[in-house]
Amino acid sequence: MSRAVDGSKRKEHRKKILKQAKGYWGRRHSNYKTAKDAVAKALSYAYRDRRDRKSDFRRIWIIRINAAVRPFGLSYSRFIDGMNKAGITINRKALSNLAIEDAEAFKAVVESVKAALGV
C-alpha cells in the first residue's frame, strides 16, 4: 500500500496543530514538526495546571485568613484549632470571603473561636 503524503486528512491534522500553535514564538507557530512538540507540551501543562489551580486557591485563602486573624492576636493554625473546638464548620473559601466582605461577621467568628480556646 502506498504512503499518503498529500491527503486531505493529513492536511486537516497539520492545520489543526498549527492553529493550536497560533501565537507561539519563532518556528513553533509555523513549522509543523516543532509546533507538534510545543502543542503537546502546552496541553500537558494545561492538564496539570487545571489540577494545581485548586491548591493555589486554597493557599491564597489560607494566607488571607492568616492576615485577617493576626490583628486579633491569633495565628492561622490556632484559629483553625479553635474553630474545630468551637464546632464551627466553615470552609476556607467562605472564611476568606467573610474576612474581606463582612468584617463584623468575621469578628463574631473570631470571638467565638477565642472563647472556645479560652484566650
Present the secondary structure layout:
Layout: H1 8-20, H2 32-69, H3 76-86, H4 92-101, H5 103-117
Helix pairs in contact: 1-2, 2-4, 3-5, 4-5
Could you characterize what this model shows?
This protein has 119 residues and is mainly alpha-helical. The chain has a single domain, classed as c-terminal domain of poly(a) binding protein, CATH 1.10.1900. Helix content is 73%, strand content 0%. Helix 1 runs parallel beside helix 2 (32-69), helix 2 packs across helix 4 (92-101) and helix 4 (92-101) crosses helix 5. The chain is rod-shaped. The termini are far apart. The model has no long low-confidence stretch (mean pLDDT 94).
The overall number of domains is 1
How widely separated are the two ends?
Answer: 83 Å
What structural class is derived from the secondary structure elements? Answer: mainly alpha
Q: What composes the largest sheet?
A: none
Percentage of residues in DSSP E strands: under 5%
What is the CATH level 1 assignment? Answer: Mainly Alpha
| CATH architecture group name | Orthogonal Bundle
